[in-house]
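Tutorial, part two.
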Amino acid sequence: MSKPEKFQGVIGRTMADSKPWWPEAKRSKADGPNVVVILFDDTGFSHFGCYGSNIETPNIDRLAAGGLRFTSFHTTALCSPTRACLMTGRNHHTVGMRAIANFNTGFPNMRGCIPPNAATVAEILRDEGYATYAVGKWHLTPMVEASVAGPFDNWPLQRGFERFYGFMQGETDQFHPELTYDNHPVDPPATHEEGYHVSEDLVDKSMDFIRDLKSVRPDRPFFLYLAFGATHSPHQAPKEFIDKYRGRFDAGWDVVREEWYKRQLELGVIPPGTDLAPRNPGVKAWDELTESEQRFAIKLQEAFAGFLDHTDHQIGRLMTFLEQVGEMDNTVIFLLSDNGASQEGQATGVMDEFKYFNGLPEDVESLQDRLDEIGGPHSHSNYPWGWAMAGNSPNKWYKQNTFGGGVRDPLIVHWPNRIKDKGGIRNQFHHVSDVMPTILEILDIEPPTTHRGQAQIPITGTSMKYAFDAADAPTQKGPQYFEMAGHRGIWAGGWKAVTHHEAGTPFNDNEWELYNLDEDFSECHNLADTHPEKLREMIDLWWTEAGRHGVLPLDDRMGLFGSGNTRPGSPHATRHYEYYPPISHLPAEVAPPVGSRSWIMTAEVERATAEDDGVLVAQGTQNCGYSLYIKDGRLVFDYNVFTTHNVVRSKEQVPVGSSKLGVKFQRQDNKGTITLLIDDRENGTIAVPYVLRMISSTGIDVGRDSLSPVTDDYEAPFPFKGVIRKVVVDLIRYRPPGEAQEEEKVRLRAEMARQ
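Running the prediction step on this input gives:
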């Protein structure tokens, strides 16, 4: 605990012989700048216009023209780990975030949260007097702790932020987001039909927080962490932003990638002589695709481009606001991405990502009459490998990999009052763990050795401030390792050793490659055979750094196995769930895992009149999920399998007064039977041709369907007019170990794609 300040005045018997004293107001210094960190998700090295693409990002480009672009800035290749480095200035394994926050393997390098002995930049700045705001994606809390039941130790407000508005999980529907305001869930302020989009909402709330502060305490600086959902899937944007890209990508990814690469050379964000890496494995030449595959891929890329363009527009709104309130010149802005472009869209791209997670490959031919839905509320799309490869130009591989395509990302630093070389390019090697020490040096703050009674892990990041005025200064960064799901790499003195790992194969069988990044920006010329001594030196250095920073044990399971749904502290410690409405919306990670199982759900309700209809329990969206509800006096269950609605209605009217209503789901192989229950009497049965392995990334509601409605049979939220006394869910069938393990693998793929 911090000690109270010693009173330095005089306390006498009366005011006449007393002297008041006030502690000095906490502030780093009188003219301390505001700090804004804008974080993109799954945005590749070449995606911004100022880094080479033809996607319109005029506001980001304006920040680059007035600031600096870093071209050798690196991340961890994954979402939560990068955010942990960004927040703490330490390596991700050191602070318990080897993979995404959804997992806990029982080892220190994968707890799914940042430990208290690694104070966040928000905690330090708050203690120095800064107003601290987090807006957007968090994903630094174990997801089983992300409901209103807590614990709240790892929520934004407990890790240094005074205000929070955004979403706790790795992704969200852009039109129907699961929102949290400070420490509680809230509904979106408007609907998609009313023009709502979460990116606009996030910027609105950012401006609200700053406006409130500057209206009352104009002397107090602020730290804003604005983490967009963009450009993570689902790629969703207002139609007008997507429509403006019609035809722009018709030439295909080979031509577009070549154009972006040439523009990168012209812009100087890659050095002369840089090679464009060859196609990644599994990526077909554009001309080898069928016409249907090409049309599908084009639409997916148009949706991505519209999504990025729309997000840039929101950044422009924030910039205009900062100018209007007179804070732009005295604000240092860091704009970056958390990893390279995503590979989760697979070879052909996906209309609805959850089909892939459920083992239902999409038939591109059958999607041809739905292409105009891409980017809208009826899609959960992600683009194919070919477009991701273009977004990572000129580099190899993708997000999750430790080659350049996964870890080399854009970074723009904009600070009008301090940066003189406007539009400058900086080539020094740096890592996302360097952002925090840069902020501290800018603000002249010494990192604490203890914080709230906790001795602190030393910060290992290196400040980049030296490069602001010195374009040609050598990098001050020491060795930097990389590791993600067994993919490994290390950089030191301009050299990089790196290996690609296939899950389940022996780590010692991996073939390491060696590159001189000072001469080979895109890692195209493997020098392992010609410099074996250097390669051995680099591999040995990797093991040394791995030992220093808590990387071991190596684990290519991404932390899923052993994370333990039944570990202490999990809501899934039993197969029995009881809810006492009204309760808040629950995220999917704490909802009963009814996918791939037999289960029974019962609700004890009371209806005062025959008109007391409404939703009893719902989970999912209009694309996929289930809803148990009463309509026109009948009990109804809709099992929505990707807009194929399996609906059963009760034979009898639901009685007025008290009753016990339920649904029994019985799985037989991949098929199932749904039976409605009224006071334990079977009251309607239907067979379903397919059992979902995963229901949805959207959580569960009791007493209403609060977000994207599961069915068109009612208008959301369709709240139940009666009283729900209790809802009970029981998982009623034991699954053989092999089957359970296979389902865990399915859940892993879904969690990894939702970073």
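The chain has 13 helices and 29 strands. In part three we will examine how such features are distributed along the chain.
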